[in-house]
Amino acid sequence: MDENEIGSVIIDTSVKLHMALGPGLLENVYEMTLAHQLEKQGLSVARQVAIPVEYDGIQFETGFRADLIVNQLVIIELKSLEKIIPVHKKQLLTYLKLTGLKLGYLLNFGEEYMKNGITRIIHGSL
């Protein structure tokens, strides 16, 4: 499965999950349930992945934690907020740059309708 195919599964699964659970739960509830549903569909999902950051010649083992990485190709950053602000999109773009991955999804389960809470971020070309 390539990044775009994985992305389609992520979007479909997120919408179904949001319809079932509704908005406003804690982020970790969506993280656990989304990971479970993606794994049920045969995808490999790693949760809270420590990503090292190199700066000034020093490697810091845990520069940040990616909420979910699917099939080692797509990063998912989860939120459960009333509104996404520009820094959230910048955060995911930075994660993509630091990992060398090309595709990420910012999923805000706090939106009334999940379609309004999905942001696709690309770093480089797919």
Shape: globular
Separate helix tally: 3
Straight-line distance between termini: 13 Å
Low-confidence stretches: none
Order of helices and strands: HHEEEHEE
Number of domain modules: 1
What fraction of the residues are assigned to beta strands by DSSP? 25-35%
**What's the architecture, going by CATH?**
3-Layer(aba) Sandwich
Backbone structural class: alpha+beta
Using only C-alpha atoms, the radius of gyration works out to 14 Å
Q: How are the strands of the largest sheet arranged? A: 1-2-3-4-5
Q: Roughly what percent helix?
A: 25-40%
How is the CATH topology named? Trna Endonuclease, Chain: A, domain 1
The major pleated sheet works out as:
5 strands, mixed
Mean pLDDT: 95
Give the tally of β-strands: 5
Tell me the name of the CATH class: Alpha Beta
Descriptive keywords:
126 residues; alpha+beta; Trna Endonuclease, Chain: A, domain 1; 5-stranded mixed β-sheet; 3 helices; 37% helix; PDDEXK-like_dom_sf; GxxExxY protein; GxxExxY
Can you characterise this structure?
InterPro entries: GxxExxY, PDDEXK-like_dom_sf. The chain has 126 residues and is α+β, with helices and mostly antiparallel strands. It has one domain (3-122): Trna Endonuclease, Chain: A, domain 1 (3-Layer(aba) Sandwich). It has three helices and five strands; from the N terminus they run ααβββαββ. Strands 1-2-3-4-5 form a five-stranded mixed β-sheet. β1 and β2 form a beta hairpin. α1 packs across α2.
